[in-house]
Write the structure tokens for this entry.
Amino acid sequence: MFRPNTFCFVSKRVGFDDWGREKHTQRKRHPCSVVRLKVISEQTSVRADSSASRGRGQEVEANSIVLLPPTLPIAMGDLVEVMGYSFEVESIQPRLNIMGRHDHNEVGLKIWVSKSEA
């Protein structure tokens, strides 16, 4: 049984602007449940410099899961903000209750990086 324990903000992707950057709607507040919120910064080797000085770069990774109500239309590419972090929807899996009715959606998230900042 789905019981939200916090709120998150969802903004739908509506397309792209003239420069190919994603456009999103204004964010709206929705109830959600956080299952896993894991954001880490790992050191990675810099490929062009891996043989000489052993240069390192920082890469942010996020592997998070939230539960959203079945009445909320969510799609791949939408933005979800949870506890100050911005994520992009990577997967959506409908989950049923024991009676076979749609109870909630399990949404897999990855860290969102604005295409204009990348």
The mean pLDDT is 83. Residues 39 and 62 are 4 Å apart (CA to CA). The chain has one domain: 6-111.
